[in-house]
Write a structure and sequence with these properties.
Elements: H1 9-12, E1 26-28, H2 31-35, E2 38-44, H3 48-57, E3 65-68, H4 78-81, H5 120-123, H6 133-141, H7 149-159, E4 160-162, H8 173-179, E5 194-196, H9 204-215, E6 231-234, H10 249-255, E7 260-266, E8 269-276, E9 282-289, E10 296-306, H11 309-319, E11 322-323, H12 325-330, E12 337-338, E13 351-358, H13 372-385, E14 399-402, H14 405-408, H15 412-421, H16 434-452, E15 459-463, E16 468-473, E17 481-483, E18 494-496, H17 503-520, H18 523-526, E19 530-532, H19 543-553, E20 588-590, H20 605-623
Parallel strand pairs: 1-7, 2-3, 2-10, 3-7, 4-5, 10-20, 11-12
Antiparallel strand pairs: 6-14, 8-9, 9-10, 13-16, 13-19, 15-16, 17-18
Helix pairs in contact: 3-10, 3-20, 7-20, 15-16, 17-19
The structure holds flavin-adenine dinucleotide (FAD) and 2-acetamido-2-deoxy-beta-D-glucopyranose (NAG) (6 copies).
């Protein structure tokens, strides 16, 4: 989830290279140390997945692991740590442009993605959600065997600690009742490194919105961590309960771990390719300073693990000769494995901001912070008592609504019927390989069946208690591509979302806008006098006019990119097997959100941590390292 942060981007570009000042207990290394060290595992990318896996593997002191991360260390800035100061800009890939989006009036976008030790966890909005059972069941149907809810739940629990009061027992029942959250202790983590808590403050108007969401027909969720992703929720956040600060992967899987001489981290260096021996076994990586400079190599005796995120992992694969043959040929890259699925099946969750003038709002609300006196008081409350507006991620409120398609529109049957009738093949990128098409066909059927039943959400609605409602379209049918355009590892790949290219996606996007209107018109919201701002406005009701507006304002990303090296059968365009091993080579896995077969309706963080736990456990089992075996 993001909020509009790009206005200030250029002004902060010069801050993008902070120095290595973090007090680390694991070992920060420099290239000369890498030169004379032989590693067991090299991990490309030090984000959520990379650091989770590195931490768990190095629990065995005999295992030497190197993580190479393109970004720098953060410096514990308030913009990173304090939710109410949330400002991720210095630690993003800037610029990271998309290609012009044909269904969005040819607009191009800056794509938000973390470039820092800790990856997305350092810059994200800290929303902590798990997916629903049906979504993971469908992952299995696509070939991700062993990745269903029951298999993942132990790892969701192992990954985190839900801190609800100081003794991590049940939340304060009176606050939970007023804030509308229920909590099933059983499904939560009680000892993991990732700290998760509920804000101990909310703006009163968010309660009006909650009530309106419910009266507009969206069901109230139970505990959203229990495998049912649908409903109206007061959501948990990835913050430490005691300090009310962000719990990110650099803290919870690197700085915080015991001093470990076997856990090396090389920051501000970019992995350029995977190196293979003549048996196509991965033996190391090439890398260079992110700012440019001399290329070097690092050696791995056991495996190379790719964790560079769904935008960059396919780039590394393609640069290494693993990808669609036609693309590799065009750039004269020697083909190691012809895998048409590398960089295909790319999706994210389009989002839409609807501006509001709330003419009779309840004070305080998010807008109150623009009053310096209120802001100072709020900050003092945070510093002294760890409560108040600063415990909430700046720009968000505390409630979200995730309705099913039936709850969004009475027309759900006809939309699904139209989607089933459609000649969808023509909306895939023209050079899509037949195996990828076959995989997409199955994905589409599974997605439509999910939308047809009442369990899986289609959208996520929110209102920030002030001038913005934001909608996230969770289940897009369109699929894009990531493709290198150069053999230069520091050049950006071509990132093409193909947002709303499938016309059914436009129909679904429109239902979200109309549902938001219905919600805002409920009595408990209507009393606040919300007026839809330009380019919308309640007076604009013609569907074609609204679609035309949407083309001009929808954004392709919620920073939830995934699925570009999918865990599916090879004949469905898959890139990795259920152990995340890349088809056609040895000693190489993809361990980040690239492996997801389909996007989940929940924000990715909880699942990225859990799958890092699961894959580390699997690797330890294979090599008989340290402790392994189910989560706790
Ligand atoms: C602004 C923003 C807001 C978000 N809000 C939320 C939210 O509220 N809730 C939620 O659940 N999710 C949110 N997300 C998404 C979430 O953070 C990501 O989905 C998650 O971090 C993905 O984990 P990952 O391990 O796949 O990759 P990442 O955590 O992105 O890590 C990948 C790392 O690899 C590095 N890298 C890339 N290329 C190379 C290379 N060639 N060599 C070396 N290193 C490389 C990158 O710099 C990065 O640090 C948000 C993301 C952003 C950017
Ligand atoms: C590698 O080189 C570094 C710096 O030159 C040195 O400190 C270290 O002891 C060397 N390690 C090995 C294993 O030789
Ligand atoms: C937490 O445990 C400590 C020590 O047992 C106790 O003093 C404290 O009151 C407990 N806090 C709550 C909220 O129960
Ligand atoms: C909780 O739900 C009730 C009933 O819908 C509503 O009146 C109240 O304002 C909500 N509180 C919050 C914090 O959402
Ligand atoms: C690929 O190699 C051919 C033949 O050597 C050459 O003509 C062409 O320019 C090369 N293309 C690229 C993109 O380097
Ligand atoms: C919001 O509406 C009020 C009352 O109609 C009006 O006075 C004010 O100018 C509006 N503000 C904006 C930003 O449009
Ligand atoms: C892709 O590469 C070609 C050849 O180097 C270049 O002309 C073109 O501008 C590049 N496209 C983009 C979008 O970077």
């Amino acid at each position: 989830m993001i909020w509009h942060l790009f206005l200030a981007l250029t002004a902060f570009m010069q801050l993008a290279h902070a120095s290595r000042t973090a007090p680390a207990l694991a070992t920060i290394v420099f290239p000369r140390t890498v030169d004379n060290t032989t590693y067991d595992f090299i991990i490309a990318g030090g984000g959520i997945s990379g650091l989770t896996v590195a931490d768990r593997l190095t629990e065995d002191p005999s295992v030497k692991v190197l993580v190479i991360e393109a970004g720098p260390f953060d410096r514990d800035e308030p913009g990173v740590l304090v939710p109410g100061e949330y400002f991720p800009v210095p630690y993003l890939w800037i610029p990271l442009p998309s290609t012009p989006q044909t269904a969005l009036n040819g607009r191009s976008f800056n794509i938000p993605a973390g470039k820092v030790v800790g990856g997305g966890s350092v810059v994200n909005a800290m929303v902590f959600l798990r997916p629903g059972r049906e979504e993971l069941r469908d992952w299995e149907r696509l070939g991700a065997k062993g990745w269903d809810w029951d298999s993942l739940l132990p790892y969701y629990k192992k990954a985190s600690l839900s801190m609800l009061d100081e003794n991590s027992t049940a939340p304060d029942p009176e606050f939970a009742r007023r804030a509308n959250f229920s909590y099933v202790d059983d499904v939560h983590g009680h000892s993991g490194p990732v700290q998760v808590s509920f804000p101990n403050f909310y703006y009163p108007a968010s309660g009006n919105w909650f009530e309106a969401a419910v009266s507009s027909g969206i069901s109230v969720s139970g505990d959203p961590s229990d495998g049912n992703a649908r409903g109206v929720i007061f959501f948990p956040s990835v913050t430490d309960h005691t300090t009310r600060t962000r719990s990110h992967a650099r803290l919870n899987h690197y700085t915080g771990v015991q001093p470990r001489a076997n856990y090396h981290l090389l920051a501000s260096h970019t992995v350029s390719k995977v190196l293979f021996d003549k048996h196509k076994k991965a033996i190391g990586v090439g890398y260079l300073p992110t700012q440019g400079g001399e290329s070097r190599t690092a050696r791995a005796t056991k495996e190379v693990l790719l964790a560079s995120g769904a935008l960059h992992t396919p780039q590394i694969l393609q640069l290494s000769g693993i990808g669609p043959k036609a693309l590799l040929d065009k750039l004269n890259i020697t083909v190691i494995a012809d895998l048409p699925g590398v960089g295909a099946n790319f999706h994210d969750q389009p989002s839409l901001l609807i501006p509001y003038n709330v003419t009779n709002n309840i004070e305080p609300n998010l807008g109150s912070l623009s009053d310096p006196a209120y802001d100072a008081e709020a900050r003092r409350l945070y510093d002294e008592q760890k409560t108040g507006p600063y415990v909430i991620t700046r720009g968000l409120s505390t409630n979200l609504a995730l309705p099913s398609l039936r709850e969004v529109t009475a027309n759900w049957k006809s939309i699904i019927a139209a989607a089933r009738r459609a000649d969808f093949d023509k909306y895939l990128p023209p050079d899509t390989h037949p195996t990828v098409r076959a995989g997409y066909k199955l994905q589409r059927e599974l997605t439509l069946s999910q939308l047809e039943t009442d369990g899986t959400p289609v959208h996520m609605l929110s209102w920030n208690t002030d001038a913005e409602a934001r909608i996230y379209f969770l289940r897009p049918l369109s699929r894009g591509t990531i493709a290198i355009n150069s053999t230069d590892p520091l050049a950006h790949p071509l990132i093409d979302f193909q947002t709303l290219v499938d016309p059914i996606d436009m129909e679904l996007m429109l239902t979200a806008l109309l549902k938001n209107r219905e919600l805002m018109a409920q009595r408990s919201m209507a009393v606040l006098g919300p007026r839809e701002g330009s380019p919308f406005g309640e007076g604009v009701t013609d569907a074609e006019k609204l679609k035309a507006i949407l083309r001009g304002v929808v954004e392709p990303s919620s920073a939830h990119s995934c699925c570009t090296a999918a865990m599916m059968r090879k004949e469905l365009g898959g890139v990795v097997d259920e152990e995340m091993r890349v088809y056609g080579v040895m000693g190489l896995r993809v361990v980040d959100t690239s492996y997801w077969p389909m996007v989940l309706t929940s924000a990715p963080t909880a699942t990225a941590y859990a799958s890092g736990e699961k894959i580390a456990d699997g690797i330890k089992r294979v090599y008989r390292l340290g402790e392994f075996g189910g989560g706790k």
